[in-house]
Amino acid sequence: MAMNLRTMPTVVYLLAVLVFIYSPVVVLVLFSFQDGLLPVPPFNGPSLQWYQKMWGNERLMDALINSVLVALGSGIVSTFLGFLAAYGLARNQSRFTSSIRFLLMSPLTVSYLIIGVGLLITLNLIGIPKSLFAIGIGHVVINLPLCFAIVFSQFGDHLRNIEWAARDLGAGDFEVFFLVIAPIMRPALLAAFCLSATLSWDEFIVAFLLSRFEVTLPVIIFEMLRAGLTPEVNAASTMVFAISMTMVGLAAAFIISRRGK
Amino acid sequence: MVVVSFWTRDRGGLNATWTAKNYITFFGRDYLVESLYNSVEVTLISTAISVLLAYPLAYILAYRVPRKWQALTLLIFVLPFWTAYVVRSYGWLLILSENGILNLVLQGLSIIDQPWELAYTRTATVLGFVHFFTMLLTLTIYANLVQIKPSYLNAAADLGASKLQGFLRITLPLSMPGVAVGAFISFVICIGDYVTPQILGGGTEVLVPQAIMLQISRAANFPMASVMAITLMVVVVVVYLMSAKHLKMERV
What we know:
The complex is a heterodimer. In chain A, 76% of the residues lie in helices and 0% in strands. Chain A is mostly helical. Chain A has one domain: MetI-like (MetI-like fold), CATH 1.10.3720. The longest helix of chain A has 34 residues, at 58-91. The two termini of chain A are 29 Å apart. Chain B is an all-alpha fold. Chain B has a single domain, classed as MetI-like fold (Orthogonal Bundle). In chain B, helix 12 (208-217) runs antiparallel to helix 13 (222-243). Chain B is globular and about 65 Å long.
């Protein structure tokens, strides 16, 4: 196929879509540096005042810490559980394998709102109050299928042979798992961790439903929006956006490094 | 496996609180049925527009961009996909608001002279969804397009098919699984999303997720909220069954 990238319609279309896709982000970031009270044109020149204000906003900073805790915690737990599930399923093939796999993946097709409502009711019944811990549980539920899928897709027959070799050399269950399988799977595990931490970091509805006093960043941004539009919301949003992009970039790097081998 | 048991218990917990009465109430109240109708309508419109926007983009990325640049270009085009819902919707709100960029540009170009009140309308909601799903569909369609072997097209050309025929009868049908999977995921996300309609749509019309949140936050009526959540799930399952033969999840 000829590389006629320079044909006008193609380029115009690409540019138009690019503008469409990036416009909200650009506007958001630009007006976080607004020197004025409103995050709308005209742009009065760059200023860091809103970032300073954000830094001094205690509720926002608490939310930042909460978000980091939940993202790291739920990321680690869901990656670990997803890894265990994938390992167990890949190693012990049985006639239930495909149905268990289906069961593990099926939550991917349920919207977060429904998961959130279900969790709210369940946690209520068990007696776990709305808290950061509850949000963490919610995010593990959301992210586990994804982690499982990512890790499971990387298990192949070669791993089985490596495992047998390790066992022949006298490795026990524990050693096989932590010294052989886990290091080999490291890029997949890191990618799964980065993606689930990002999803948790960005997630709103479950956090909103399961929180009372300890809120996460998306929840507090949503609450600030109700009070009105200020460049401070832009500053907070820009921070959320920048961190998400970093995490996704890392995940992409891990996946690509895996392919490179 | 702990998690699986958690899931079934989760659903079972809902089950125990059901009585048919809630369902009768749900379908008996016009505004609730209307919210379901609105939800389905918004979802279908958003998904359809997104497919139309994403297909050419994925096609260009897969066939017109040199191979070694493809991964990077794709990444650039779908990067904002990973923005938080709240943040993305807020960005659109800034653009669409009465003093926002869009009105400024349109007025500057003298296309309109009165500010166009787009924020807090259904159009704004649909736009917010389309923005997100265009990226998602581009991913799934692209993943599908690059799997189609060029030899099929060459064979068709050898047999005398024009470029258009080749596209219509080979590329398009073979890429349908990617479209179907992407559209299905969009459908699921769209019909269950609270943030976008709440921030961008304002209070002009109520969609099911907003109705659910109202039941929870205002009335603390969990059974009613569950009924609505289950209704949403049933809609999703019906759509899944209707499109099941096109859906091959493992391709994504």
